[in-house]
Amino acid sequence: MGLRITVIGLGYLGVTHAVALVEFGHEVLGVEPDQSKLESLQKGVVPFYEPGLQEALEKALQTGRLQFSKTHTEFSKTADVHFICVGTPQQENSFAANTDYVVAATRDVAKFVSPESLVVGKSTVPVGTAHSLQTVLNDTAGFEVSLAWNPEFLREGTALEDSRHPDRIVVGSNQKNAFERLREVYKPALDSGSPFVEMDIETSELVKVAANSFLATKISFINAMAEIAEVTGADTVKLAEAIGYDERIGNKFLKTGIGFGGGCLPKDIRAFMARAEELGVQDAVDFLRDIDAINQRRRARVIEILVSELGDLKGKKIGILGAAFKPNSDDLRDSPALHIANQLSERGATIAIHDPKASVGLKEQYPTFNVMQTALDVFRGADAVVLATEWNEYREIQPEIALELASNPVIVDGRNILDVNLWLSAGWNLYALGRNVQRGKH
Q1: C-alpha atoms less than 13 angstroms from C-alpha of 25 in its C-beta half-sphere
Q2: Residue 8's closest CA among 133, 172, 179?
């Protein structure tokens, strides 16, 4: 028989986690104060794009074991586990993470916990946060509340599969019963082979930011090599292939281009730097400032290329292929594509942009951009085109057809996914970041 579980905060993490828990056989109450988001979920509609999640939500609702509410209900009083999944955005005037939502959710749930229930944080927080939350829980509830931290490792585009079959389940707690209870929660995943890693609560708070800092470092490393390759005539794609065969290095996250974005990596490494400074050990993570700077320079490099080709960008029409920070997502947060588009717009360029899934968000958040219905529409009358998100459909664009539509045969492949020889032979001037690519003839 399954457990009774609340999931507090129904953003990207919360919705996916709630659906997976129902699939694991549990009964779940999702708590979300945002009325529009709540109404959407109650109708069985996921308010963002994630492959497979819409269908999974519909099936979860059909079981009768998933319900949504704006506030805690009587269900919460009898719940075995409470998962806190609210956001920790970057503060407006600081690199530090804003934990106000986590504190508020903790104080709220503390009114409904019992001595037998367990509160579990999944939000990404600065190390030491759980210690202060334990005080909030105990003071509000009037007794010692069991608390654990269970960081999430969801990747947008594969989040549902990551929830169903996590590559590891990390649990930090100073209370033994927490590990036993979470083994119950994740039993189907454990039975299918997911490792269960027990540790103290402080270490568990560090795991997510440490992992993201390492990934960001790897991405920025290869992009630093791209800066060298571009002035020496070397090919960073081939360089990455060669060093990737070394099993100590591996080939994942060695893709040169315009860098990383989204709601996690940039925010997490900045929050990590801020927390290290608070702890007086900022020297330990000073390298992350360089990682962040390299990432920003790759975006600026695209602007430099366009200025070198077109001169003054005022009045120029620039096409942008992709808006989401990565494919198989409609997430526009800290998107390299949109950062570049905004920089071009500020220089007076007219922006024509396409994304297979993010058009609604684009029209709402960027009303001055021309949001196109198809990828080929981006090329019509364009003085230059930037491929900024590696959607598969962009690989299939026929360069000869695109050339007939464009005013000027200039394309910047910011993700290194195009067939170089095909585009060059069609007559395009192709700039592939970090590669020694010859210009086409036109």
Answers
A1: 9
A2: 133
- pLDDT per residue of the chain (442 residues) written in tens, 0 to 9: 799 999 999 999 999 999 999 999 999 999 999 999 999 999 999 999 999 999 999 999 999 999 999 999 999 999 999 999 999 999 988 999 999 999 999 999 999 999 999 999 999 999 999 999 999 999 999 999 999 999 999 999 999 999 999 999 999 998 889 999 999 999 999 999 999 999 999 999 999 999 999 999 999 999 999 999 999 999 999 999 999 999 999 999 999 999 999 989 999 999 999 999 999 999 999 999 999 999 999 999 999 999 999 999 999 999 999 999 999 999 999 999 999 999 999 999 999 999 999 999 999 999 999 999 999 999 999 999 999 999 999 999 999 999 999 999 999 999 999 999 999 999 999 999 999 775 644 3
The position carrying tokens 């709540």 is: 38
Give the span between the Cα atoms of 338 and 332, in whole angstroms: 8
Cα dihedral: 330, 102, 96, 209 (round 10): -70
* Cross-strand partners of 129: none
Helix (H) or strand (E) holding 148: strand 146-149
Looking only at the bridges linking them, the beta strands covering 370-371 and 350-354 are: parallel
Q: What distance in Å separates the CA atoms of residue 222 and residue 130, rounded to the nearest whole number?
A: 35
Q: What contacts 359, CB < 8 A, 6 or more positions away?
A: 371
Q: Report the half-sphere exposure of 435 (CA within 13 A, side-chain side).
A: 25
> Which DSSP category does 97 fall into?
B
Does an H or E element contain 31, and which? strand 27-31
> What is the sign of the dihedral through the CA atoms of 54, 56, 62 and 64?
negative
Give me the active site residues, please. 264
